[in-house]
What we know:
Order of helices and strands: EEEHEEHEHHHEHEHEEH
Structural class: alpha/beta
Mean pLDDT: 94
Distance between the termini: 37 Å
Oligomer: single chain
CATH class: Alpha Beta
Shape: globular
Largest sheet: 6 strands, mixed
Number of helices: 8
Amino acid sequence: xxxxxxxxxxxxxxxxxxxxxxxxxxxxxxxxxxxxxxxxxxxxxxxxxxxxxxxxxxxxxxxxxxxxxxxxxxxxxxxxxxxxxxxxxxxxxxxxxxxxxxxxxxxxxxxxxxxxxxxxxxxxxxxxxxxxxxxxxxxxxxxxxxxxxxxxxxxxxxxxxxxxxxxxxxxxxxxxxxxxxxxxxxxxxxxxxxxxxxxxxxxxxxxxxxxxxxxxxxxxxxxxxxxxxxxxxxxxxx
Length: 238
């Protein structure tokens, strides 16, 4: 089942084209990994798909809804993790989840908040303000927030960045769990090793353009890494 489809999405900032005619489909149960260097347009693409930025041109269909014209209708389908916290740093993780859960009208909200914070390993810090959290702790909170309303689609921008080995493994395990539930997941990363292990289909993104579409069954990790490195050299971004 198709969860999210884009057609020729572009985004300009002034005369600069950051995202260039991106067409992409993410199906239920897929983990699509986009590999690209810093400045390739990955974060901008995620923000567009999350309805946080409006594209200059193109279309986005989420669960058969025009996500550009009716962005408010599709946001409950989306769980988003980006570098901006999209939360209140002076609030505790429990206070944040409860606040956002009220916006989504979640039943048994306090139990849901407690369950998620326990699942992501933050139960000991449930009443500590977010601003004291480490990078790994903040990432765990953001995953709990993204999962709070049981979304159908996860959009994760560089989810492994700045994390230690334990935190990276947690993120990978959680993505796999959500995949088993039929969620559609898009991750952006420059880490081909982690992206390969968790992904089911791969793209390269270079200078705003989405390239390749490679199924995991059709390529080994070493070959994927070599193709990516070769492409960076060709583009002059390595």
